[in-house]
Amino acid sequence: MSGVHLAMLALSFLGFVALAVGMERHAKHLLRIVPAPHWRLGARIGGWALLAGALALGIAGLVTAGVGIAIWTGWIGLAALALVFALPKWPWQPPVKASTERSPRKKTALVTEEPIRQSRRWIGWLLLASTAGAFVVAFAQVETKPLQREDAIHGQVGPWTFTFAETDRDAPELVDMDVPMKAYRLRFCESCDNQILRVTLKVNRPRAMRASGVAFEGTRWERSTQIQLPSNLTARSELWMTVVGKDGAVHQASWPMAAVSPATVTWFANQEHTK
Fold this sequence. Notes:
By secondary structure, this protein is α+β, with helices and mostly antiparallel strands. Helices cover 47% and strands 20% of the residues. The protein folds into 2 domains: 2-94 and 120-140, no CATH class; 147-274, Immunoglobulin-like.
């Protein structure tokens, strides 16, 4: 996950640099020369493409599209601040035009302006550091997508490969009348998706197709479902997935509940001890 954030920051910073090169004034500042108009146009197009690439990376690599857009907004702001602070330190500074008429400045004025200039510099650096710190804290609180976690199950059912995981690793959610519910996520390979008609999930082996469990919602990419858990669930209980292909073929896969949802098994064991 940190790699995604660093890549977003790098792409955003390079995008702003490219946009600066695409402007005549800043190009002369950064390159010592003014590129030809078609080169500046290419730099501007490349800059916007890099910013768009950072946005696409955030949407694809983070938890949801909304989180990706929010994080991208923060990174481009931080990249812009970094560029603003870097430009005055750039070795190729534009020449300063000498004034023909310059009024003499008093020594006291120079002494007074120096602390002000220093304080402004420190304030700027503190703002930059506080912005970076705020985003570090926010990123630490962002969880990895369920199907990208290390505990996600990778397997094959029939001819189709898949990735399967519980939506969260917490105890089951209690709904009306204290019924425990658990949500799961599933994703098949891109070429597999078009061959699958229906996928259902159930605790304990289904006795018939009509009782194969709750169907996953979604036809492409990530599918999701939420199932009711039986009151007698134990570590030896099994979670069964039934997959029906568009050709009518039926395939099944199963896992011990202790391997898929260990926190859920622990919760049921604690409930049994408290009775």
